[in-house]
Amino acid sequence: MGVLDDSQAPDDAAVDRAMRQAVEIGWFVSHGGDTQFHTEHYWDTVKEMAEFIETRRTKPKVHPSYADIEKTYEDLSAKTSESVRLRCRWLGLLAVYRKAAG
Fold this sequence. Notes:
single chain, 102 residues, alpha+beta, 3 helices
């Protein structure tokens, strides 16, 4: 079990500030009912996982390290004849706004 920490993503903070300002000015109105959802990504190797994560606009902190993940992956793979896959879950937020009348 590990953690991807991208809570310090500057793009997310900038978008949040811009949307707050657009609502305050009256350009947009919240449609209400923000929705949180999970997305899951699967990989067959740590290399594939690392390449995918490194292509993100903001580079998250990965805990434990890729080397530690590789060691755990190799240990688990050696203990089974089944395929071992890596999974990463992201929590997303969907907020809907509509253009204000007028």
